């Protein structure tokens, strides 16, 4: 018998993101409040992570930060409890 394991987290539990440089493997932790201006290059090896501030991935990271901050501040979903579902494999990494 297999067990159906569900892993979830509250939006309020999100405090930031981790960005790992593929070039030198440096891990940069960016607090949620700083996601409005995420780093564009690795602080150690200076590898460029985005070709410009208009880069779609760069804009998506900024959008993620704004969205999470907005949801934490205004609690627009006050009549329900919204949780993000995560893959159980996160504990295997
Ligand atoms: Zn690097």
- Overall structural class, as computed from helix and strand content, comes to alpha+beta
Strand-residue fraction? 15-25%
Query: Would you tell me the overall average pLDDT?
Result: 87
Number of helices: 1
Count every beta strand, where a strand is a DSSP E run of 2 or more residues. Answer: 4
- Roughly how much helix do the residues carry, as a percent range? 10-25%
| Biggest sheet statistics | 2 strands, antiparallel
Heterogens? zinc ion
Order of helices and strands: EEEHE
Order of strands, widest sheet: 1-4
- Detail the poorly predicted runs: none
The N- to C-terminal Cα distance equals 24 Å
> Which value, in Å, is the CA radius of gyration?
16 Å
Shape: globular
